[in-house]
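Sorry to interrupt, but I need a hand with the structure work. It will help me judge whether the discrete encoding reads sensibly. Write everything out right here, beneath this request:
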Amino acid sequence: MSEPAVEVLAGQEELVAAAATRFVDVVTAAQAQRGSASVVVTGGGTGIALLERVRRNPGAIDFSRLDVFWGDERFVPAADGERNELQARQALLDHVPVDPARVHPAAASDGEYPDPVEAAAEYGAAVHAHLAEHGSFDLHLLGMGGEGHINSLFPHTDAVAEQHELVVAVTDSPKPPAVRITLTLPAIARTRHVVLVVGGAGKAEAVAAAVAGASPADVPAAGAHGSESTTWLLDQAAATHLP
């Protein structure tokens, strides 16, 4: 488990640029070393903005040798604009030569698996298959909520306490929609490089608690660690409670 590093950027634009640069650097290094790379992307305004930036400045990424997963997904119909998958496709994936077989979304509520538990199991099977072949994800991008949640792992819930399963269904999310599919802390731990991208003064208290080593039950982001590196990319507002 890696100790967290903290980088503070001037503002939102600089934060997005730094996150996009990290995406490109990790992916190209992994492809150079192992022939392919895998990323777990996140939604939200910053998560989608960094994908748009990667689209504009992809560096030397070979998108045909990139596996894409999602840290969590809202269990809503496939065409719902709230789906992280749809937003990521619009921002990046529909505009670059990805191999469709290497893009791994969680099932939608109107798809083949209308039961969220079955949908989580199906997504979990794809995650397990990838990790069985490659050992780890290369990059897991995470945003964070004001109370410290990451993916759909909220404080004091069964999902954040999960110690074994890599993917679980959430049926009582405190943030709507209530039903979601999420990677767990054990899945995040199966990642070489974890990058948390957080902006805004409303998240500063949770950032400080997580960096200081709070209990993941209280602040889920505190449980996010990569095997090789864990990096917090913060704007100045989000860093105001750090020592």
The mean pLDDT is 97. The two ends are 23 Å apart (CA to CA). The CA atoms of residues 20 and 50 lie 5 Å apart.
